[in-house]
């Protein structure tokens, strides 16, 4: 089959959907791969490296004109116009954006949004949310350290002792756990909170302290269990108690990293303005939920702002700041998904009995499909 890899045109998107490593594998399986000229440049991947791996370097029209198009983010209307009816598009296509899915369906393409894959063991190797959240968690700590006007580790020097930074992490999923691990490597003292009590052990095994907000009702306990590994919105009673606990911890913290997301909904507010007001001057907040409305109401998407003496970082695409590795992991996720929709003879084979294929399919034959209502979440 002909597989196309276009240059991503969204502002700030530096990743690319294939690497020379994955192109080599696709070519060895008998596919012809066209990589748009300069598609990998922002991820430190030269056209010559793609060519050496067996790709043809072409223009946008050739890449979008392929049988299968591999992309990082959803296509713009101009990009969609370059695809033929029946083209298979695979990428992070934002399954909760109805307008976007309807546009893709209207164009007659078959689209798979990998964010909608179930969180099962079999789907782990193509789990784009995990591969990219892992990078975001790492980069959040590096950015925070960069903006923080003090050392992260404790230092005992001839000129005196420097205390270790105190880091508070709200939301200990994939990004939060990587943030804990990264902050730990930099020598910080860490506390972390999540609605899911199951993460207590994971937080502690990484050397951080779990901020426990106990459940007082059966409703709170059930909400916290979530659905399919994802959180659900918590009752107001629990959120109030959590806000109190966060308020006390954030006053002591030097860096707060928030990562709490609820699929398909606005991110919950975890760090209120009244809390930021009482944080130490020079403290840093990194809000990983910036693109979903933010965990802090003071966050401005894609900006670094200073409010009440606290630096608040609202970068909405942290994986794009680690473009080479983010692309490498993402491209491997795509390669694993392709195994599910292309048979051994190299032909397209859509098996809708396969739970992963079924969950990721967004549209086919001019119709919106979305077998799971948009994602594997609630
Ligand atoms: P996510 O990005 O959707 O959310 C981040 C975290 O925020 C989650 O841990 C969530 O519980 C937490 N959160 C939501 N509301 C909160 C609140 N009010 N206060 C504090 N925390 C809040 O989650 P994710 O990182 O994509 O994944 C969540 C979990 O799914 C993982 O930790 C893991 O257990 C599971 N998972 C399973 C697989 C698999 O089995 N293949 C793969 C990836 C993740």
From TrEMBL:
Instruction: Give every Alanine dehydrogenase/pyridine nucleotide transhydrogenase N-terminal domain span.
Output: 4-136
Superkingdom classification of source: Bacteria
Record keywords: NAD included?
Answer: yes
Extract the Pfam families matched here.
AlaDh_PNT_C, AlaDh_PNT_N
Might you give the EC number(s) for this enzyme?
A: 7.1.1.1
* InterPro entries hit by this protein: AlaDH/PNT_CS1, AlaDH/PNT_N, AlaDH/PNT_NAD(H)-bd, NAD(P)-bd_dom_sf
Mind telling me which SUPFAM superfamilies this protein's record contains? Answer: Formate/glycerate dehydrogenase catalytic domain-like, NAD(P)-binding Rossmann-fold domains
Q: What class of enzyme is it?
A: translocase
Do you know which Gene3D superfamilies this protein is assigned to?
A: NAD(P)-binding Rossmann-like Domain
Q: Which reaction does it catalyse?
A: NAD(+) + NADPH + H(+)(in) = NADH + NADP(+) + H(+)(out)
Q: Which UniProt keywords apply?
A: NAD, NADP, Nucleotide-binding, Translocase
Location of the Alanine dehydrogenase/pyridine nucleotide transhydrogenase NAD(H)-binding domain: 145-314
The record's annotation in PANTHER family points to: NAD(P) TRANSHYDROGENASE, PROTON-TRANSLOCATING NAD(P)(+) TRANSHYDROGENASE
Role, per record: The transhydrogenation between NADH and NADP is coupled to respiration and ATP hydrolysis and functions as a proton pump across the membrane.
Name by which UniProt lists this protein: proton-translocating NAD(P)(+) transhydrogenase
Q: Which organism is it from?
A: Azorhizophilus paspali (Azotobacter paspali)
